[in-house]
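STRUCTURE:
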């Protein structure tokens, strides 16, 4: 009898282990299928329907965090035409909209920011732009972390402190960048005729770039002080009315356009221009990057698209 009971317990144990194994195997298979479905769904639809209320077909409304997760910003930062657009959007979110993101969207935000920093460290371009972004984000987080307990940030406080430490580490990495001179010894910028140098400098839209360029060589310093250059820069970014309110005369009694420019940027926002932007279809209210296919029912979808600036994108989700 004792031997039989012992054998019976052994069979029960084997049966129990077998059932557990089958349940676990089915669960792993189900999770795998669900994960594959989610990944395929996420990569297939790189657009989002923007709705601001509940309907019979859709419950609730579209949020900023949902749009941020769905619009494939990770790939957008690899495109030089979209890079500045995404960085500006990250900066605006860091200033005032960080608490509007869900927990997943906040995590996605930090992951994209890390990829942006790594890209800048590799190609050594747009360093100042990312420094300003990191400083803006760090300042905002310092303010938000002090208000812990009032539901302003999603997640544990230690996680956000760790993220702030990562931001400081990225800032240090950017500060330690040493720009390497190219090995190519052909025609340089200073070898070009003065008219071409001035023509190229007129294409720069940031006055700080002009100042930096003027510090490279004495000849470029003279060109970077050209009054017509700074006048065109002021007229590009600001209206005549704004310029008339901030007139500054030099010692010679002439308008000092350079000083006026730096005074104007402290008072008014500069004009923003991007190679590629997010677009909203006025017919079907779908938001996507230019060139992204979406299920539009209009006869001519291209005529229905409206380009959105980074600020317009954020304003789209203010209800």
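SEQUENCE:
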């Amino acid at each position: 009898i004792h031997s039989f009971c012992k054998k019976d317990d052994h069979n029960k144990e084997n049966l129990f282990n077998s059932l557990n194994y089958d349940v676990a195997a089915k669960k792993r298979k189900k999770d795998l299928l669900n994960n594959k479905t989610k990944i395929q769904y996420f990569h297939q639809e790189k657009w989002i329907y923007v709705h601001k209320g509940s309907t019979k077909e859709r419950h609730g409304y579209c949020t900023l965090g949902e749009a941020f997760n769905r619009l494939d910003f990770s790939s957008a930062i690899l495109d030089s035409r979209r890079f500045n657009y995404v960085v500006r959007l990250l900066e605006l979110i860091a200033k005032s909209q960080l608490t509007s993101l869900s927990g997943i969207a906040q995590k996605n935000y930090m992951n994209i920011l890390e990829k942006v920093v790594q890209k800048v460290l590799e190609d050594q371009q747009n360093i100042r732009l990312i420094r300003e972004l990191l400083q803006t984000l760090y300042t905002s987080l310092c303010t938000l972390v002090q208000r812990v307990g009032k539901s302003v940030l999603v997640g544990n406080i230690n996680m956000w402190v760790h993220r702030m430490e990562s931001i400081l580490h990225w800032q240090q990495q950017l500060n330690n960048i040493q720009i390497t001179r190219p090995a190519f010894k052909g025609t340089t910028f200073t070898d070009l005729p003065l008219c071409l140098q001035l023509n190229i400098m007129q294409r720069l839209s940031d006055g700080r770039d002009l100042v930096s360029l003027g510090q490279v060589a004495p000849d470029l310093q003279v060109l970077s002080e050209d009054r017509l250059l700074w006048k065109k820069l002021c007229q590009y970014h600001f209206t005549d009315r704004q310029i008339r309110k901030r007139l500054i005369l030099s010692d010679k009694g002439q308008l000092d356009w350079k000083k006026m420019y730096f005074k104007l940027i402290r008072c008014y926002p500069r004009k923003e221009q991007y190679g590629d932007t997010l677009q909203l279809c006025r017919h079907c209210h779908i938001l996507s990057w230019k060139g992204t296919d979406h299920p539009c029912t209009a006869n001519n979808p291209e005529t229905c698209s409206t380009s959105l600036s980074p600020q317009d994108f954020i304003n789209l989700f203010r209800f």
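REMARK: The chain has 14 helices and four strands.
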